[in-house]
Design a protein that fits this description.
This protein is an alpha/beta fold. 40% of the residues lie in helices and 21% in strands. The strands form seven sheets. It has a seven-stranded mixed sheet, sandwiched between helices. Strands 9-8-7-10-11 form a five-stranded parallel sheet, with helices on both faces. The protein has a three-stranded antiparallel sheet with strand order 5-6-23. Helix 8 packs across helix 9.
């Protein structure tokens, strides 16, 4: 791993892509509108990037549709598509330092996390879906002897993938890899805060052998570029990860246009339940801290509600308070930093407002709560823990998307389950108990997509990720992701007598 000085030297050598990539080329749209990408760790301008308005989006859709209908990619054999995606996975790894730096500079995450977790994770997702392609089979229905009915999957066509800023490359991989593996053409819209790794991904895909026009990247804001994608009449599906509010917009866009499929993975307010029969409280406290402070708390499945059985509440909080200082933010390009900058000044203001309201509503601030300044940028928030939180407080109900933990006691298993389920969200949860029967019983009653038992945020490319309620209903990862990118086709063959 390089030193901070080496990373800064490398950062000064970067040339950021400013245009969308459509039909294998950087799109010179002639559009005068641009948005600024700011490094939140320094408040310095990285570059200005084009906003793709309706004309540019139309161009991307036309190209993607033409490629799909022509079969440049969609009609290639699974083995051929597999080889291209495997080459892309290898190219991602070969460009690890560059891709990690692009995400760190644009959204403030630590270079260590981007380099050691995000980039290898993205490459792994492409590799996994590449390897799945020649192992998927159709079905033959049970019919009478004078007929044969096959059930196969075919690609949908043109997919719009709209991804967030907290994991720019990883979230792009989660959407793009299975969509391409299934044979679709894809239009990827990265968040305006973090467009660069998506643009480089498109260039690397071309280098890997993906036909021009199969993967296009359009840059811009949600109210212009994102809306144009959502309302487009020739897009077959939108897959989205982001806030619940914006997810609802895409549902409306689909209804107003061609009734395209919409798959949403939205916000969360995930509970972490600590029962008194969990004996390794040090390990539980260490993981509880990681569950809320990792990636500056900018994680949709972050365990932001900590529910602790009252008999161990005070003891557990004391253990947790000892863990919090390990997550103090620092320069993202310093390899020793465990947390970096919040994504923007606006988002930092939002997080600090939640901290202020929690204090005003009577929660007890036990640590943190302050905004810090490094490199003349004040986009750093201390790891923050509140006790005395009640279920009616905003801190217990709304997604902060920052390093702020709400701690609440419970007296019984029933109360713990009721508190955990008392949320508009249903993304994830954690349960800590050495009683296997209790762990299984509680997990079954939690209304979430993933329950992690005696760990936090269990995640692997082989298992589906997603939730319910206002966390959305899409599922990323695993073979189940193909449900979003394919349609079932029945072929009935009546045999001659």
């Amino acid at each position: 791993m390089w030193t901070r000085e080496k990373w800064k030297e490398y950062a000064n050598q970067q040339h950021f892509i400013q245009q969308a990539i459509v039909d294998g080329k950087r799109l010179e749209s002639g559009n005068k509108q641009r948005f600024s990408v700011i490094n939140p760790a320094t408040q310095q301008l990285l570059t200005d990037v084009d906003i793709c308005e309706e004309t540019a989006v139309n161009r991307a859709v036309t190209v993607a549709r033409r490629c799909f209908e022509r079969g440049d990619w969609s009609k290639q054999s699974p083995t051929s598509r597999k080889q291209v995606l495997l080459r892309l996975a290898e190219l991602i790894l070969q460009h690890t330092d560059e891709l990690a730096l692009l995400d760190s500079l644009s959204m403030g995450k630590t270079i260590t996390d981007a380099r050691e977790i995000d980039v290898p994770g993205a490459a792994g997702v492409f590799r996994w879906y590449a390897e799945s392609l020649d192992k998927l089979y159709g079905q033959v229905a049970p019919t009478a002897q004078n007929a044969v009915a096959t059930i196969t999957r075919s690609p949908l066509g043109v997919i719009a993938a709209v991804v967030p800023w907290n994991y720019p490359l990883d979230m792009a991989a989660w959407k793009v890899a299975p969509a391409l593996a299934a044979g679709n053409s894809v239009i990827l819209k990265p968040a305006e805060q973090s467009p660069f790794s998506a643009l480089r991904l498109a260039e690397l895909a071309l280098e890997a052998g993906l036909p021009a026009g199969v993967l296009n990247v359009v840059t811009g804001t949600g109210d212009v570029t994102g809306k144009a994608l959502g309302l487009h009449e020739d897009i077959d599906a939108v897959v989205f990860t982001g806030s619940t509010q914006v997810g609802k917009y895409y549902m409306q866009y689909a209804a107003q246009s061609n009734l395209k499929q919409v798959w949403l993975e939205c916000g969360g307010k995930s509970p972490n339940l600590i029962f008194a029969d969990c004996h390794n409280l040090d390990w539980a406290a260490e993981k509880a801290a990681s569950a809320i402070f990792f990636n500056q708390g900018e994680v949709c499945s972050a365990n932001s509600r900590l529910l602790v059985e009252r008999s161990i509440h005070d003891e557990f909080v004391e253990r947790l308070l000892k863990m919090a200082p390990q997550w103090q933010p620092g320069d993202p390009l310093d390899p020793t930093s465990r947390a970096g900058a919040m994504v923007s000044s606006r988002h930092t203001d939002k997080v600090m407002n939640y901290i202020q309201r929690a204090r005003e509503q009577g929660a007890e601030l036990r640590c943190g709560g302050e905004r810090l300044t490094f490199n003349n940028a004040s986009n750093f928030v201390q790891p923050t823990i509140f006790t005395g939180v009640t279920a009616d407080m905003q801190l217990a109900r709304e997604e902060v998307f920052g390093p702020v933990l709400a701690v609440m006691p419970f007296d019984s298993e029933e109360q713990a389950i009721a508190l955990a389920n008392d949320s508009i969200y249903g993304l994830a949860a954690s349960v800590w108990s050495d009683d296997l029967s209790r762990a299984h019983r509680v997990a079954q009653r939690l209304n979430v997509g993933t329950v992690s038992v005696n760990t936090i945020d269990a995640l692997d490319v082989s298992i589906p990720f997603g939730g319910g309620k206002q966390s959305g209903f899409g599922r990323d990862l695993s073979l189940h992701a193909f449900d979003k990118f394919t349609q079932l086709k029945t072929t009935w063959i009546q045999l001659c007598q």
